[in-house]
Structures are given as structure tokens and as C-alpha cells.
Amino acid sequence: MDRRDFLIKSVIGALGVPFMGACSSFGSVSARDFKLGVFDTTFGGKYAANPEVLEIAKSIGLDGVQVSSKEKDYSKPFASPETIGRFKAEMMKTGMEIASVAPVAFNEFPFISAENAVKFLNSSIDVAADLGSDALLLPFYGKARMNPKNGAPMYEDKFKALVEKLKEVVPAAEKKGVMICMENSISADDDKRIIDAVGSDFVKVYFDIMNFGHYGFKAVESIKALKGYIGQVHLKSDAHDLSLPAKNPEEGVRACIDSLIEGGYRGWFVFELHGFKKRDLESRMGIVRTNTKYVRSL
Which spans in 131-204 are helix H? Predict the structure, then answer.
């Protein structure tokens, strides 16, 4: 409890009114428990792994950025020392943080089967730690998809292969203090089965509130099932303006955020746009700014 909450509690107690904390539904929860970021490619491919995105994020009023990988040559690390140095300099200049890193090339070169995949993921873990982040997004879309169709269980052979591969990188993740957060098309139950089989607190789910609905699962129901298993969160919807009703997540963004907080989630909410037709930077900044104000209002 900070000084402000202590004073509020003292005054309300003196009036004989029960103290319910900062939020009666969730106990003492405040904006300090959360940070807002944006996925760099939200502003276009030009900003992938580009330190200039930090200044854009600052101008919107965000706390930081999720950094994607450009490199598809798995014989090379996630980012060069020069790129890391530029990011550090820009972080110092802007005061922005790195929410997580995202080796998105794993969609085209699946982590389960790609040559040098473990080496590349280990280099991604190193970069995350070097930039002060405790999370990494490991994607499983496109060629890396783990189930045959929406709503279906994952392939059993891929389950076994993935668990073995994750066990290879877990020691590096634990040493560096970086969570490996899987973003994929499978159910909460399959995600939990993978994590339990690996047996490490440093393997989690990267929960995208739109994707779970898109791939045939209920977002809020999945959030509740994954209590304690979620490492970081993408906020997006097919309405783009997060305050508006959407097909995905059909329960609404507010319901998803409430369920996450009720389940004990504290940390980053990272904005992402998918299917947003306006390509110009000004429009993309505008919708992220609108969503930033909306989420902060909650």
C-alpha cells in the first residue's frame, strides 16, 4: 500500500465506511501495475527493428515498444550490436522501455523444425535481456501453425517436438530472466499442456485477445482457463477502435481486461493493428493514440 492509499484508508476508516481498495472488484489495483506499449510493425514494415519507433511511441503517450526481428538468416543473431546500441541510445533519450522482443521470422521458419532455431531463439533471449525486457514473443502462425483448423486440437507430433525444443532453450531463458511467451492458434488447454510438460515458469502464453476468438475460442473463457499462464498481452480487435463492439473479441476489450486483472495479470498491454486498411503513419498513430486514451481511462 502506498502513502496515498494509506491516507484514503485512514480517512474512510474514520468515517466508518469499509475500505475497498483502489478497485472494489480487484482489490488494490492501480495504473502503476500496468504499462502500455505498441508492436513496432503496427506503424509499417519500415519500423520493424527500427529505434525511430521509440520516439513515435513517446509522442503517443506510451511506455514502450515491442521490437520485432528483421533477420531471416538463422546463422545470424536476432539483432546486430550496432542495432542494439542504437536502441539503447534512443531508450536513454526518450525514456521508453522495451516491452518484449518478437522473432517473427519463426512464422516462416518454424521453431519446431527450422535449422538453427534454438540458436536464433537463444540470441533473441540475449537481446531481450540486454534491452531490459523480461519477455519474448514466440509465434506459431503460417507455416508454424500447430493445429489443422480453427478450434481443433494441436497435432500430437508437434506437441512432442515442441516440448523437446523448448526444454533446450529454457536454461537460457531462466538464466537471463526472460519469459518465452507462445502466441499461437491452439486452445488454452493445449497451451497449458505444453507449459506443464516443459515444467518451467519461464514458458508462458502470449495472449492476444483478438486471436483467440479468430481461431475459434472464447477470449474471456480462455483468459480464465490460463490464469497464471499468461506472460504478456496483445490488445487489438477487428473494430480497431478498442472502445467499439467487435466480432473478435466478441466479449469486448473491457471484459477481457477485467478478466485478466481478476486473474492476477499485471504487466504490459501491447497494442497491435491487424487488417487496418489505412497505411499512412498519421492514421496508424491516430488509432493507437485513441486506444491508449481508452485503455488508460479504464
Answer: 156-176, 188-198
